[in-house]
Amino acid sequence: MAHNITVAGVSVDTRHWIGGQRVASTGTFTDASPIDGRVLGEISRGGSAEVEAAVAAAREAFPSWAATSRAERARILHAIADGVEKRLEELAIVETNDNGALLRSHRRGVMPRVAHNFRFFADWLLTLEHEAFETRGHGNRVSWDPAGPSVLITPWNAPLMLATWKVAPALAAGNTVILKPAEWTPLTASLLADIADEAGLPPGVLNVVQGYGSEIGDALTSHPDVRRISFTGSVPTAQRIAASAAPNLTPLSLELGGKSPLLVFADADLDLAVDLAVEQYDNAGQVCLAATRFLVEESVAEEFTRRFVERAGALVQGDPRDEATDIGPNIHPRQLEKIDGFVRRAVAAGARAVIGGHRRDGQYYAPTLLTDVAQDSEIVQEEVFGPVLTLQTFGTEDEAIRLANDTRFGLAATLATGDPERAERVTERLVAGTVWVNCFFVRDLRAPFGGSRHSGVGREGGTWSFDFYCDLKNTVTAPGGWKSHG
Predict the structure, then answer these.
(1) pTM metric for this prediction
(2) Contact (CB, 8 A) for 360 and 317
């Protein structure tokens, strides 16, 4: 069987990458494009044997990589970034065909950010200083020791960018990596393995194992030789990972779902507020940070809705490879069925679809806004992960904050207001890992990223990433001179 497929002229190896070599499995799974449902190829389907091989390779490579100087690690990470930039167009077109996100976004924003992820953590590694202080004359020196083999499990909505948010800091910290990409979008992880190899990353430092989570996820997360697990995805899967990792007390970083609010006050610039609202349809609503719950002050709700409907109605939905397209398909027939089920149940419960509320041909769901929704309803409380938004109104600032915080999630919040004092008051009371004021999706890798409540455990970004991927050690030295024996 051929082990390479061609996607829009780009050759992609469908085998695992383990210990610096391509490894095939006897079984495969089918990878199809959400754009038109066409089969892209058959992908090697890993199991316990591939997991054992990948962990063994990571374990064997770890001592040498951990001992590699910071400068050399940083040099290799920059070389990987060079490789990403060299193959940017190939990565963009493969990712678009594999996950259906806009090609123009991959070209202009996502893939350049992939390269930036490697450059940022390469440079940040070189700025880390061992903190030193004294306690009653005793010297204290805090250092970051590489933790060991790390399992990174990544989602399908932004496959390569979200993978490299994890891979780059883990490698920079001196850890070896077993990357498990989402089975719906495995292709750019395979290309990343090629790029890392060409950049001179030693064998076994980065391993890529493909397959279904239920078949290889438990084997990866329960493995006693794994020292860190980082996961982005759903709450139920995170709960399963936590249970699997518990016997070994393996540290976890979990970036999970969201049901984030967009609070629009009457003093806001309504054009700006509508711009922020329409932006929530980005990536066909498949963004964990999306502000899917509009909370609008009663006095401006009618005008806000009118402007929003006008702007949303001008969005172009279609083939994401077309430069004119604003919204592409949803990832998979199963996800489309899930989205439609949420909307149908909401409408049956009394919600009104101001726009959308229905499927389109193929794997496309019409951009939807639902009103007349109850705070305790499923559509308000649960993550849909599709182009489905809700609108509720509020009369007071206290009510707005109460509604904003009244879910089990706490990943992000967006606030539109013209009053800086109100912005400060409200942001202090919002439960969220990130709050944007009069902006959206501005992400600086120096800042901590993660969620509160069921939106996650831990923070990554800047020094917080190294805190997670390293074992922090404090060395205490007695005062006075050194006296040798003999």
Answers:
(1) 0.95
(2) yes
Residue 215 confidence (pLDDT) above 90? no
Encoded tokens for 327: 């919204």
CB distance 339 to 367 below 8 Å: no
Q: Mean pLDDT over residues 440-468, rounded?
A: 93
Residue at 58: amino acid letter: A
CA–CA distance, 84 with 459 (Å, rounded to integer): 26
3-state secondary structure of 363: coil
Q: Is the pLDDT of residue 425 over 70?
A: yes
Task: Find out whether 22 and 50 touch, Cβ atoms under 8 Å.
Answer: no
Strand partners of residue 264: 296, 416
Backbone dihedral angles phi then psi of residue 88, each to the nearest 5 degrees: -55, -45
How far is Cα 90 from Cα 9, in angstroms, rounded to an integer?
Answer: 8
Grouping H, G, I as helix, E, B as strand and the rest as coil, residue 320 is coil
What DSSP letter does each residue of 326-361 carry, written as one string?
SB---S-HHHHHHHHHHHHHHHHTT-EEEE--SB-S
> Do 177 and 167 form a contact (C-beta atoms < 8 A)?
yes
Whole-angstrom Cα distance, residue 16 to residue 23? Answer: 5
Residue 220 predicted with pLDDT over 60: yes
Using N-to-C axis directions, what is the helix angle for 111-127 and 88-99, rounded to 10°?
Answer: 120
Burial 78-104 (b: 16+ CB within 10 A, else e): bbbbbbbbebbebbbbbbbbbbbbbbb
What residue type is assigned to position 65 of the chain?
A: W
As a whole number of angstroms, the distance between CA 479 and CA 395 comes to: 64
Q: Where are the alpha helices (DSSP H) in 199-234?
A: 218-221
Q: Report the C-alpha gap between 265 and 270 in whole angstroms.
A: 9
List C-alpha distances in Å: 486 to 55, 96, 482, 483: 46, 70, 13, 9
CA–CA distance, 391 with 438 (Å, rounded to integer): 18
- What is the spatial distance between Cα 410 and Cα 235, in angstroms, rounded to a whole number? 12
Q: 279-292: buried (b, 16+ CB within 10 Å) or exposed (e) per residue?
A: bbbbbbbbbbbbbb
Question: Mean pLDDT score of the chain, rounded to an integer?
Answer: 96
Give me the active site residues, please: 255, 288
β-bridge mates for residue 44, sequence order: 28
d(CA 395, CA 262): 15
CB atoms within 10 A of CB 440: 20
Is residue 240 within a helix (H) or strand (E), and if so which, with residue range?
A: helix 235-245
Percent of the chain with pLDDT over 70: 99
